[in-house]
Amino acid sequence: MRELNDLLDDRGVLLASRWDDVRLTRPLLVFLQRKTARIDVGQLSVCAARYFDTRLGLMVPKRYEGAAGELRDLTLLAVAPPGRDATPVTILTRLATAADHALALALEAEQGGGGLGLLARRCEAVAEVDSGAGDELALRVAAIFAQAHLGPVVAPAARQLFGVKTARERLLALRGD
HSE (CB half, 13 Å, CA atoms) of 84? Predict the structure, then answer.
């Protein structure tokens, strides 16, 4: 937590001077139909509770003022799936790049189409979900972001592009349901 606080300003927003210092573990990439990198924890927590029976909240409070968090932000979420204690998950949100869109389109082509690559092209921001807390938790958070922001998920290491339905199916498979 100390390392994270060194990256944030007094409003809980990622310092522009520290953008290049953020490194996540095997992140899942979620495309977001938003024009900003700011986190709307209210929207996410409602979606988490309604669709995933999960509690979600900020571990470090945020105050967005002026242009803070517009281009890139770092957030530590407390995520509590059913019957489990909250676990921290690190999220880097940023504006989408041409490389992000190209990756989604390439993966869609590899998978034989389906439209998710085109959906990704309409998304102006992305969230990188750190998988350091475990694959199931990262997938759960990615699915919550995808549900809340109507965008597909990319698992770059596995070269996979999928939507919320597939994310939910994978969550069930990981839990053994």
Answer: 15
Structure tokens at 21: 């210092």
Asked if 44 and 144 count as a contact pair (C-beta separation under 8 A), the reply is yes
Flag whether 94 is in a domain.
yes
Q: Which of 39, 36, 33, 56 is nearest to 146 (CA)?
A: 33
Give me the number of domains the chain comprises: 1
Contacts of 89 (CB under 8 A, 6+ apart): 76, 77, 79, 129, 130, 133, 137, 138, 141
Would 145 be classed as within a structural domain? yes
Query: Phi/psi of residue 54, each to 5°?
Result: -125, 140
> What is the pTM for the complete model shown?
0.93
8 A C-beta contact, residue 116 and residue 130: no
Burial class (CB in 10 A: 0-12, 13-18, 19+), 76: middle
pLDDT digits 0-9 by tens, 50-94: 999 999 999 999 999 887 778 999 999 999 999 999 999 999 999
